[in-house]
Structures are given as C-alpha cells and as structure tokens.
C-alpha cells in the first residue's frame, strides 16, 4: 500500500460558506461532487475541526464558490488558514449574498452553488453532507482550479517563504517556526504534526 | 438556476472494475473521492444502470484505476460505451489482477486503488458506496486526466465523427444516426434522449 497513491485523485478547490444568525463564515474544501442530476444533489465532506462544519450541521444550508485558476494564494490563506471561531472572515473581503442570504465569493470564482442539507453521515474525522442544489449561477468562464494546479502554480515554493520550519507532507502547508508543537494540526488539511517534515 | 453551473465542478475519470465468480467487468466513473485519511476511505457514486453497479452491490469489492491524460478515446469507448451484461470487457484488453483478484488497467493509468464497501446509500438514480481502501499503488507519474481535459483533448470533435446525429448536452457523447430513439439512454452519463440536441 502506497498512501501517496491517493494524491492522484483529481479534486477542485472550493470556498464553502454558511451563515448562522448574523455570523458569516467559510472554509476551503476539496470534496464537492455532484452525485445525481435528477434531483440535482451534491455531496461535500467537511472536517469536524472546521468551525464552518458545526455551523452547517446546525443550519443545514451552505454555498459553494468554485474557485478558478486565478485565485490568489492570499484567498486560500484567508479562508483556509484561520478559523471563523476566532475572526470574522467576511470583514474587509469582497462578497455577495445569494437568495439564501449566505455569502459567496464573486471574484476568483466561476460559479456559485446554493444547497440545502438533506442528510448527514458521520465519517469519523469528517461529516458527509448530502444536499439539494437550490440555486446555481455561472459567474465567469475562467477555468476551475484543481488541487494539482494549486500545488504547481499557486502555492509558493518553500524556498520563497522560509529558510526554516516544517512542511505538511499531505498538503504542502509551511509552518514557519521551530520547533513544531507536538499537538499542531495542519490548518489546511487538518493532519497532525507527525505528517510534517523539516524543510 | 443555471444547470450548466454544475459543469464547473472538477472531476477525474476512473475505470471502476469488479469481479463476481469468474466474471470480470468495469465501467467509467467520475466520482471517486477520498473522504477520510484515518481510516483511508473513499466514496464512489455509481449509476444503477451500470452492470458494474449490481456486481459491486453483490460482491462489496472493487478496484479504481486512475486514468491519465494519455488515455485513448478507445479506452473510454471500451469501458464506458458498452455494457458488461452483453460482452466480456476483459477479453483482449491488457489488464492485471491486484491481491483481491480484481482486474485493474496497468496501461494509461497512474494508480490503482483496491477497496471494500462498508456501507451503501440509495441516491435514487445512483448508489453511493463508502469503502475502505485495502490497497493502493502508484504505477506512473503521468498526470491524472480530468473530465475537463477529456472534453478538450481526448473526445473527438463532433465534426470529425459525423455529419448527422445527436449530441448529449450533458457529456458530449455523439449518437451517429437519425432519428434518436425516444427511449435512448446516453451510454456515458446515462441521461435520457431529452438531454440530446441535433448536431
């Protein structure tokens, strides 16, 4: 068994956003899949460590912004490398609201999809949300970014970011300090410190 | 709502193979997703019209061959455009067997994954299989093909294949005859005749 074999599965990258009472929030996910067209339903698996996860579990509604190849690394950092439990991610960021009043990213996005959860499955570290698509609009013709494109063209090369630190062997996230705390969890892919190696 | 918005989700393309008694079979799918890494589990949604679907439902085991950008259109035709209910798809085709004795495609593939079903969810037109990864090996460094790459570089342009006929607006499959039978089902994406338009 070669665990790196799983890297060859192709994924897109998406901003998954939601709203609870007056709080907007979102995170980056790579697992949005249309599973049936009649009815139009999608699946998304969300790590339980994401604050967005808990909000969707409670509200049952979310938007997916399909990110394009023109998405900046700052956008991935903003939505992926910090938690909505600590900050207001919608503050100072360009967004619009769809009919469900949930935010989506009008820039660096070619499509937004609004969805309503119809069932959840506990997958241990993640929850799988099966959801009806309630709205979907195309915003641009820019190509959707794949995880592979992100790794090759958007993520800064390690040399450019730091001379010392640790790199997550799962997703490439760089922790720019030494030592790496034993209980560190990768802010992108949520893997533990044991999956990091020194730069 | 723009139903074409769903096209911007990024997918890979995979040969999904299985074995029941002495019968080997397989089909093409675009929905293989790793949902958790601890344990290593994947999801695949399979249309119930695929004979492979019924076999996996009975046997609970399958392989996924991750197809590369070098996969020929003939391979997609062989595995995707005909049913294992009618022919022996393993006949005259290069294949190998993994430890579970199920075939995988050693050529035009960069990875094979063996998996054992742990639960099934009825999604109406499709069944969703959640499965433990029992084996996975990397076979080459060729890039995985995406559905978008297939549409742009592998699928023959309509002009090259036919002067008359119908094209599936969902997946681009060309039916090279006239008229299109009313009960026709697209052999690739299983959409009905109402989703076809004249060339």
TrEMBL record, chains A, B:
The lineage of its organism: Bacteria, Bacillati, Bacillota, Clostridia, Lachnospirales. CDD domains: rubredoxin_like (cd00350). GO terms for molecular function: FMN binding; iron ion binding; oxidoreductase activity, acting on the CH-NH group of donors, NAD or NADP as acceptor. SMART domains: Flavin_Reduct. InterPro entries: Flavin_Rdtase-like_dom, Flavoredoxin, Rubredoxin-like_dom, RUBY_RBDX, Split_barrel_FMN-bd. Residues 163-199 form the Rubredoxin-like domain. This is Flavin reductase. Belongs to the flavoredoxin family. It holds the Pfam family RUBY_RBDX. The keyword Membrane does not apply. Keywords: Flavoprotein.
